[in-house]
Please model this.
Amino acid sequence: MNILLIGSGGREHAFAYKLSESKNCDKLFIMPGNPGTAQHGTNVPINPNDFLLVGKFCIDTEIDLVIVGPEEPLVKGLRNHFDADEKLKQISFVGPDKKGAQLEGSKDFSKAFMKKYEIPTAAYETFTLKNIKSGIGYIKSHSLPVVIKADGLAAGKGVLICETNEDAAKEFEAMIRERKFGDASSKVVVEEFLKGIELSVFVLSDGTNYKILPSAKDYKRIGEGDTGLNTGGMGAVSPVPFADKIFIKKVEERIIRPTISGLKNEGIHYVGFIFIGLMKVGDDPIVIEYNCRMGDPETEVVLPLIKSDFAELMKKCADGKLNECELQIDERTAATVMLVSKGYPGDYEKGKKMSGSDQCENSILFHAGTKLNDNNELVTNGGRVMAITSFGNDIKEAVSQSLKNAEKISFEGKYFRRDIGYEFF
Ligand code: AMP
Ligand code: GLY
Model:
């Protein structure tokens, strides 16, 4: 079958890597892709948010299956565009429609959904300009820290954890009155702070059946020891040692099943990945957030552990036949270490020449922010540049293999965390 994969980061390189291994994948196109995805298929320089062009490309190249990596085209309704067209709706599609993508696209929607279906999550209230005064009152008497969240997509920056009520009230006003995140913060969720250990569980849903993928933990802070600013993710490990069978059973019974049946009950035919961000509070899983896609860099550790034919898994998912698939998972542990540009997550320079990839052994290099310059040389093209994934019998072994290769790749301003997985050593 011919497959179109949408996206351009390390996550999509990991998807492309898995899809190209499959005997079921004839032609693979990545839109727009990066130099890493180009090793496994053909990059297509079309903006995935230009739905008309995406649809035309699919017809012209006889695409059988579309897989969407990032949230933006989903939240904007790429699936709805396909569903509304006689020809395009014949194409198998992995990714929820606009309404399903609200699980990620609107914090208020996802919180109300969890409340309705009694899925454990932090207590909250939602406010807009209309009830801003009662919001300020609510915040002033809230226990500390207070968590303030912009309702809509805010490029990962819309969540603030405030240590004082005054700070929280100030941020809250900046979001609503000054539109700190534009439309995304015209509605704001104020919620209780959860204290525990974070991890993520990924579910693949065909609307009725589901498969639980390996758990993962990502390391979001820029500095070692989980210090400094939040990033898109500096590394990840999978599976998470404390997410044992008993814990995952709780996640399945208390969260996954009510989520899948709740979506159905809302009339949402959810086909695609559900990324469940969890806090383990005591021994119990509490939902922090849903995303309507896989995580990045979690994908770079979760997908390499899947032994089943990945293109077949995606096709069965799209066609509502996940029950016909058996999910086989590698017994080993996977870890990934992200190489980033100096200055990230603040300002950073691009276009730094990269070398040493050919010296790396026993790791998979997933390109995140790279490109080929006019001289066909590999250069940096983003804050997160490359994810180095390795396997091991345990986290320590997998991480140290990635670290060895992290030393071999050079570019000016390279930075990475040496302590990914530290709490499990
Ligand atoms: P989100 O964008 O919802 O993933 O939030 C970003 C990060 O903020 C999460 O990964 C958590 O580390 C943190 N966070 C969000 N909500 C809470 C909460 N209620 N309690 C504690 N930490 C939170
Ligand atoms: N690594 C977190 C995310 O993909 O949202």
